[in-house]
Design brief:
The protein is mostly helical. 37% of the residues lie in helices and 2% in strands.
Length: 400
């Protein structure tokens, strides 16, 4: 017999064996058809109707669709019932100091809100803005805008830190809230916030909210036929951007017409200029290139400090005339105790003391409110010192 015939024979026997086994198994699985089999119908049978009626009863009794789920347990409700009312209702027992809050804020909040609660990039500022609510561009912070301290405590406890909500303990929340108050100059550095003195903290804008009556009071702004094009005969620049470089540049003659000069814009590339300086380097001329570099470095400082015409105290004191000024020398500003002691000892700001402070604020002034870690590059320190020196001609007493 050839190999092909033997292969076909084996395949045929195997196929016959498999069919025989399948037939026997199928035969054993056959069940008899009932005399009255169920048929599909649009009308529910009695068992189904009873089940649906029971489900409706459960739904009505427990207000739960088809009886699914269960009533929330008391402890489950309490876990989400975290709101704190302006009158202190819902506030848990606990306490936290400004000192502890500064450490916690630096560790858990500063990435977004800055070391001084001044805000980073587009993340909101939590401090500052005092007296700005009537401005065209008000700064709404916890200190300047929020009417109730309970709002700050409740939000921190419920939603912060970003990405790790509800990981803060009660005492940690008190401490961070205390530091935010301190950053807004609403409490002293030795303050401890607790459920006992919570309602004693006065928020500056507590009486700053009114009933929303815009439907009536602003009705005169509504116009059924608004202008959509060619609404003005001519378009002109009426204001200039201060921070963002978005205003179109003007030619030199037009700039001179606006009265721009080296004092209001110390970063401009100009020849070295001798300026009276009460500091140690009074006779030294100013370096235009260093001033320009220092202006860029000052961007790290401008959230808290101001210089130039109209400069005022913010989170930190204005720095006009800082060279040669006695430390903690601006009346009315709340300096740290350590800086006050240094000023009382006759220490002044000069190139040496500024450099030491800029490189390591906390190391140079123990207990300083300034949480900035310091400048790492000597070139940045030199440039920033020159930039501040260019504002030494500003009379601090007049500016203040």
């Amino acid at each position: 017999m050839s190999k092909s015939l033997r292969l076909y024979a084996v395949s045929g026997l195997a196929t016959a064996f498999m069919l025989t086994v399948a037939y026997n198994l199928a035969d054993k699985s056959i069940v008899e058809v009932p005399e009255n089999p169920r048929v599909m119908s649009n009308a529910p049978d009695s068992a189904y109707a009873i089940a649906m009626a029971a489900a409706d009863t459960v739904f009505m009794d427990r207000q739960s669709m088809l009886g699914l789920g269960r009533e929330a347990l008391r402890q489950e409700i309490d876990a989400w019932d975290l709101d704190v009312s302006p009158d202190g209702t819902g506030l848990p027992a606990g306490s936290g100091s400004v000192a502890d809050g500064e450490v916690l804020f630096s560790d858990k909040c500063a990435t977004c809100h800055g070391e001084f609660a001044e805000g980073v990039d587009n993340w909101p500022e939590l401090a500052g803005g005092e007296g700005s609510l009537a401005d065209e561009d008000p700064l709404k912070t916890v200190g300047s805008y929020w009417p109730y301290l309970s709002t700050a405590w409740d939000y921190v406890h419920r939603s912060m830190p970003f990405g790790a909500a509800q990981t803060l303990g009660v005492d940690e929340t008190y401490a961070i809230t205390a530091y935010i108050l301190y950053s807004n100059d609403l409490v002293e550095e030795d303050f401890t916030l607790s459920n006992g003195n919570f309602l004693d903290v006065a928020m500056p804008n507590a009486d700053g909210f009114i009933v929303d009556d815009r439907e009536i009071s602003e009705a005169h702004f509504w116009n059924s036929d608004p202008c959509m094009k060619n609404c003005k005969e001519s378009v002109e620049i009426t204001m200039r951007a201060v921070v963002l470089d978005v205003t179109p540049e003007e030619d030199e003659n037009e700039s001179e017409a606006h009265g721009e000069n080296a004092i209001s814009s110390p970063g401009a590339e100009t020849a070295s200029v001798d300026v009276a300086n009460p500091g140690d380097s009074a006779a030294a001329p100013l370096d235009g290139k260093l001033i320009e570099a220092g202006e860029k470095v000052f961007k790290k400082c401008k959230a808290c400090h101001q210089v130039g015409e109209g400069a005022a105290n913010r989170v930190g004191p204005h720095l006009n005339g800082v060279m040669g000024r006695v430390m903690a020398g601006i009346d009315g500003f709340k300096y740290s105790g350590a800086l006050k002691e240094m000023g009382a000892a006759g220490m002044t700001w000069n190139e040496e003391t500024l450099a030491a402070f800029m490189s390591d604020p906390k190391g140079y002034v123990k207990g300083t409110r300034m949480s900035f870690n310091g400048l790492r590059k000597d070139s940045d320190i030199v440039a920033l010192t020159e930039y501040l020196r260019s504002f030494s001609q500003w009379d601090a007493a007049i500016i203040q």
